[in-house]
Amino acid sequence: MERIYLGDRITAVTVVSAGPCQVVQCKSNKTDKYMAAQIGFGYAKKINKPKAGQVKGLANFKYLKEFRLDSDQTVVRGQVLNVKMFTEGEKVKVTGISKGKGYQGVVKRHGFGGFRATHGNKDQQRMPGSIGATDAGRVFKGMRMAGHMGFDTVTIANLKIVKIDVDKNLLYIAGAVPGATDGLLFIKAEGMLPEVSNETPAVEEIVSETPVAEEKVEEKLEEVTVETPAVEEVKKDIKEEVETPVAEEIKEEEKESASA
Q1: Sorting pLDDT into bands at 50, 70 and 90, what band is 224?
Q2: Is the full-model pTM beyond 0.70?
Q3: Cis status, amide bond into 20, omega within 30 of 0
Q4: Which domain covers residue 216, as residue numbers?
Q5: Considering only Cβ atoms within 10 Å of each terminal Cβ, which end of the chain, N or C, has fewer?
Q6: How far apart are alpha carbons 228 and 226 in whole angstroms?
Q7: What is the H or E stretch that residue 242 is in?
């Protein structure tokens, strides 16, 4: 969490990286019997083949999650959703996975007060105590006992957005949100979805850069092919200059030996 100034007051906020997300699949009443939009978020280096077929033509998304839609809301595959959907001062509902605490006792898990530390008690301070009479012969459902704590789906409503950073796709939400750092959150707000964005997806930008790289490689190959003949001619001239005087000296020595 961070602290920011809102006027003369300091407010504790949680900074959330919200998007950009992209619509991967649109579900309708005709095909799937309900209205929903499947949204992709994050980037993964490698994905399996079924997932690759599902996001064909889009980026390799790390997360794919589904949101229900009303009958009057429509989305298009490839539509980009970012922080421009929200407004400062808007109340949102945040859902996430709470931090896992492992196996905990009744004092930490349910807030039991425990027994007295003196006057006859020995090693009973954090014990659960009785869990029921022996007549039933079973433990009733809902009995508060020790067990696994945390790692549950938690929803917090009426959280206020105090600041929006459009350039970095950041939401500054007042207060705490469920989950640990780098956890996945679902942010919902009342209202209509924005119109289809004309922003170009990141995948298309990468594809458009490929021909430029090919052109640079071709230019380098042309430069190499142009320079090669000149280097070979220089080498031939050097060999001729070096070899010719040596040959002439050998011939003169042969003549002198023959005349002698």
Answers
A1: very low
A2: no
A3: yes
A4: 200-260
A5: C
A6: 6
A7: helix 202-259
